[in-house]
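Summary for the steering committee. The consortium agreed at its last meeting that each partner would contribute one worked example illustrating the joint modelling workflow. Our contribution is presented below. We chose a case with several input lines so that the handling of multiple components could be demonstrated. No manual editing was applied between input and output; the record is shown as generated.
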Amino acid sequence: MMKDGSSVEDGQSPKADAPDHKVNRGLSIADLVMRAFAALGTLASGVTMGTTNQTLPFFTQFMQFSRATYNDLPTFTFFVIANGIVCAYLVLSLLLSIFHVIRSAAVITRVVLIVFDTVMMALLMAGASAAAAIVYLAHKGNTKVNWFAICQQYDSFCGRISGSLVGSYFATIGLIMLIILSAVAISRS
Amino acid sequence: MMKDGSSVEDGQSPKADAPDHKVNRGLSIADLVMRAFAALGTLASGVTMGTTNQTLPFFTQFMQFSRATYNDLPTFTFFVIANGIVCAYLVLSLLLSIFHVIRSAAVITRVVLIVFDTVMMALLMAGASAAAAIVYLAHKGNTKVNWFAICQQYDSFCGRISGSLVGSYFATIGLIMLIILSAVAISRS
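What follows is the complete predicted structure of the assembly.
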């Protein structure tokens, strides 16, 4: 299943395992901390977007609705779902990360983590970038195709949805770092 | 720099290296082929989007322009740039991939590939998903915020921009597979 990191204690091949063992434990602890922060980032993003709404006291010329919620735009619903899935995965994967701190020479389980981290990073990036494209449009509008900048009316709504992107992008960078950490740890095992 | 895969020929430790060596060479060839296909995918996407335009013979009620090109929407410009960067990277990385077919036990260079593959996958996914969000809006529109479905007018334009997403998403899946392949190859070295 895996190369056993406790070979030093077993006295089987103590030649060069000791320093590798320490470095890999360090990498595992970095993995654990970064994973926890990434989970918090997705949680903050998902909750911020999911609770965003703004009611205007009047009907404006261009808007036929006076209340804006995140699920008026399907892309934002996808963003909330993506953040939820990735957050749940990151919390679950903390268990495997803790296991790697204890058994720091594990290889197979690190490959498994790389596979899932990569897929989850792709999902999170898809959600964040799709939402960013719509947020950009909400701010700037597009005069060429007559899509109005709704942020002129819904300023607090737009402030919150823009802010909610930050946690997602931080978590994406965190996941990229996690993939690299795992690759380095595997190469040293 | 790297663990040398030619140790079998050197006669240093022929015990279990031979099968690993063969499997890793197989993984390297799979990497090379998939990388070439991913490069073609990004090339096709970038060129399709970058050459898309449609001129309408009349001004319609909702449109103030009669010619639609991809760079009317900044998101599509980002999509073309992202595809271009990733395509150039994938072509360059073919050299390293060929090197891995020859020296199939290389470790450090595979870690380097994982780092760049991950960053490029994130970039490509960002471009593809942002473009997908806008394409979705162009097709469906959004009655809540009065963003009209421009595809009712620009049908051939919309057909091409939708099609151009396919190559990008295939390349993204290809890059995910490449990251996994590299991780497996490193774990076997």
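The helical segments of chain B are 7-10, 17-50, 74-102, 108-140, 155-188. Residues 17-50 of chain B form the longest helix (34 residues).
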